[in-house]
Amino acid sequence: MRHLIEPADFSDAETLAVLNLADRISVNPSAYAHVADGKVLATLFYEPSTRTRLSFESATLHLGGRTLGFSGAEQSSATKGETVADTARVVSCYADIIAMRHPKEGAPLLASRYAAIPVINAGDGGHNHPSQTLIDLMTIRQRKGRLDHLTVGFCGDLKFGRTVHSLVNRLVRYPGNHFCFISPEELRVPGYVIEDTLVPSSATFEEVTNLEENLPKLDVLYMTRVQKERFFNEEDYLRLKGIYTLDAEKMKLLQPDTPVLHPLPRVDEIAMEIDQDPRAAYFTQVQNGLYIRMALIMTLLGLADPVTGEKVLTC
């Protein structure tokens, strides 16, 4: 039995296989309409979510399966003191696979150690968001035709941005990628990402504060919101939340084929006037989220692709 707790849980070959499966699903989703007939996904979301929870549920329904779960800790027995470990044991009796989001880093990993079914980390605190990473890889590959030799700019909240941490963790595995981290001092990328991910891979990177100066050199721009829910001090949040805004004027500084990604939700860091720009890729990410999560559910349940007759995981 396999789980997806962090991006490195899949080898490079397995990651490529998941991306290729998602591509096939996107071309002919109806071919996969009954792959997961009779299967049940449990969404255990201790934190609010729109895209991630609904896309996991939609993915299951598109595969012919069913869903159950909760969308807030207050709707679960956590309010009575039940541990994550016990919840994982209990839900294993009702479902075939779990997608879990939790505000505490490491909670999905703990759940995977006690669950009798596969667990997908749907976001744990400011740590990891591996399914979003696969979505981002799929979108970048669609727009750029490759995942290597790219200059990728990450802008905004790089301290608490789990989507940033997860994507960097994956992109360092492809040769020639350079990272440009654009943030205020207070929201710089955490030291553990540099020490545990960037330095061992010998990846090149720079930490800067000015967005406009660095836009022209980027092959990919990944914007993030300043996350109010991660701050202990509202005054600090209010001071930092509007520090970067991508508008039509700044878009002129980007290359003609540089896609703009964002995990959403956005607040004020991307102006709505950009939505019609062909380089705006964030709603494409949302659509790709359905296909990636369909592919993930199939992969971890060991379901064969009806188009090729093959499974992604061989063990």
Tell me what the structure shows.
- This protein has 315 residues and is of the alpha/beta class.
- Helix content is 37%, strand content 14%.
- The protein has eleven helices and nine strands.
Keywords:
five-stranded parallel sheet, alpha/beta, 37% helix, four-stranded parallel sheet, 315 residues, 11 helices
Briefly say what this structure is.
The protein is 37% helix and 14% strand.
Shape: globular
**If strands are numbered along the chain, what order do they take across the biggest sheet?**
7-6-5-8-9
Total beta strand runs: 9
Strand content: 5-15%
* Contiguous runs where pLDDT drops below 50 for at least 5 residues: none
Tally of DSSP helical segments? 11
Secondary structural class: alpha/beta
Helix and strand run:
HEHEHEHEHEHEHEHEHHEH
Radius of gyration: 19 Å
Largest sheet: 5 strands, parallel
Question: Average pLDDT across residues?
Answer: 92
Q: Terminal Cα separation, in Å?
A: 8 Å
Helix content: 25-40%
